[in-house]
Amino acid sequence: MKTHKQLGQMKKTGKKIAMVTAYDYPSAKQAETSGVDMILVGDSLGMVVLGYESTIPVTVDDMIHHGKAVKRGAPNTYLVVDMPFMSYHVSMEQTLLHAKRMFQETSAHALKVEGAGEVLNVIQKLTFAGIPVVAHLGLTPQSVHVLGGYKVQGKELEAAQQLIDDAKATERSGAIALVLECVPSSLAALIAEVVNIPVIGIGAGPDCDGQVLVYHDLVTYGVDRLPKFAKAYTNLNSVANDALSAFVQEVKSSAFPSDEHGFSIQEETIQHLYG
Ligand code: KIV
Ligand code: NA
């Protein structure tokens, strides 16, 4: 398993970091087997696993429940867990209590928070308390209603400058890595250059220090529309739908189960029972 120091070293030596989300035991196991450097229990679980419209309904308990399953599936991979909507905004006391529970109960290696500004204090305090923090800038889905939709961030000069300043500020506050979501590729490249922590991009072009994708997008599982920045490496929807339809047909036609799927008993015993 890599430490965050080693992940930082990968940036320095130009080795790309591969990160994927996971939300349960099987996806975590697959991620670990495939050799990803980092796993994220993203609050995207609200959408891709729980069927909500956004990440906003996701709770601390949801994150812990899924985080623990992921840890069991991938005990030897660097694990980051998202702090969900409003779990780090009400007061520093409540933030620390949520973070303590999430960090202890999931045995994560780091927690991730969205935004800069006031959130810089959160990054500082958690780091001070011994919890490594991954920052998340650009499109921050927990603020979708403030941002006015899921769209590319940092296109105007002022917004781009703000993003650069925020990225530097998260590093100064102690963040060990930065996720950049939906940012023009050349701006993301510049940000990756001006900060020393690894920048993991999603919809942020090829010049980030690493890439993260949502598991369900990557394998096309459950989702029916992919965001522009995602790449489908396979289609589990069609594999699973074909399998399920075949099962239904075989039950209806009595083709399943066949003898090989059943258990036997001695003929005399059954004759005896028939009387
Ligand atoms: O929740 C999530 O999946 C994320 C990634 C998109 C970075 O935050
Ligand atoms: Na997230």
Automatic annotation (TrEMBL):
Its main location: cytoplasm. One of its GO terms (molecular function) is 3-methyl-2-oxobutanoate hydroxymethyltransferase activity. It catalyses: (6R)-5,10-methylene-5,6,7,8-tetrahydrofolate + 3-methyl-2-oxobutanoate + H2O = 2-dehydropantoate + (6S)-5,6,7,8-tetrahydrofolate. The active site is at E181 (proton acceptor). SUPFAM superfamilies: Phosphoenolpyruvate/pyruvate domain (SSF51621). Homodecamer; pentamer of dimers. HAMAP family: PanB. This is 3-methyl-2-oxobutanoate hydroxymethyltransferase. The gene is panB.
